[in-house]
Amino acid sequence: MRELNPVAGRLAMDIPSGSPEEVYAWLNALPRMRKWVGDRVVHALAAGKGFRVVNEPYEATIGVDRRDLEYDRLGIYKPQIMELARSYDFHRMQMLGDLVVKAFDHTCWDGQYFFDTDHPVGRPGYEASVSNRAAWPLSVDAFWAARAAMRDFKDEEGQRLGVVPNTLVVGPKLEGKALDIAKAEQYEGSTNTAKGLVEVLVLDDLADMPTAWALMDLSREVKPLLIQTAKKGDFVAMDADNDEAVFSKRQLRYGVDCEDAAAYALWILAFGSTGDGSAPT
Description:
The chain has 281 residues and is α+β, with helices and mostly antiparallel strands. The chain has a single domain, classed as phage-related protein like fold, CATH 3.90.1690. It is 23% helix and 28% strand. The protein has six helices and 15 strands. Strands 7-15-12-8-11 form a five-stranded mixed sheet, covered by helices on one side. Strands 1-13-14-4 form a four-stranded mixed sheet. Strands 2-3 form a two-stranded antiparallel sheet. β9 and β10 form a beta hairpin. The longest helix is centred in the N-terminal third of the chain and has 26 residues. The chain is globular. The model has no long low-confidence stretch (mean pLDDT 87).
């Protein structure tokens, strides 16, 4: 089967898994280089806030009467069989899309919602609350406000992390407006100052949240989301004459199965807006 498809690969890290579940620990933020004076400053992984990701099995199977396939003069059945490979890609994207949809009310590794107003960043006892969430409707002004917030994200030492969003994530209903913001020379009668700063990524799952949108920095090796892969999609054809179902029932069976899971990784690489509030001031 194919590797993580290009769109999924932009959103998520593909993490191999060798057990039924994996436990992850993350840094509060990605540390920057500092002048080396005295001993190194060790940024410890937040093991106490580690989270568990459990792999789940998935499958898709179709059965075809052998005579129907043999007399398939219109070529109807074979393309449907080959679509099973695409169902694996769809499954992976659906897992990621579901994470984005739920990001406003589902927790990530630090115990906060993935998109939240008070992520704790800093050493224990000295945390600062950082927001990567708003309710601004999508507009050029909202884009600039979210971008400025992300560029001000700091590590536990108070150093800016250099987070620069390069992707605007929207659902189908905001696709036209997002493309205008990303590519148009003019926006609402004025010069579009945001042109060329981001690419647009449309997630069909966000159709359920028609006003929601997000900015993400997908330029790094580490991503906002992860897909944990214990078993890649495996296509199996049970169509040999000596297969039991073929011999006894004249049924050819084709299937694909995998074992994987998806989870939130680094919230600090994303900023989300529900889009159901007022414009930024």
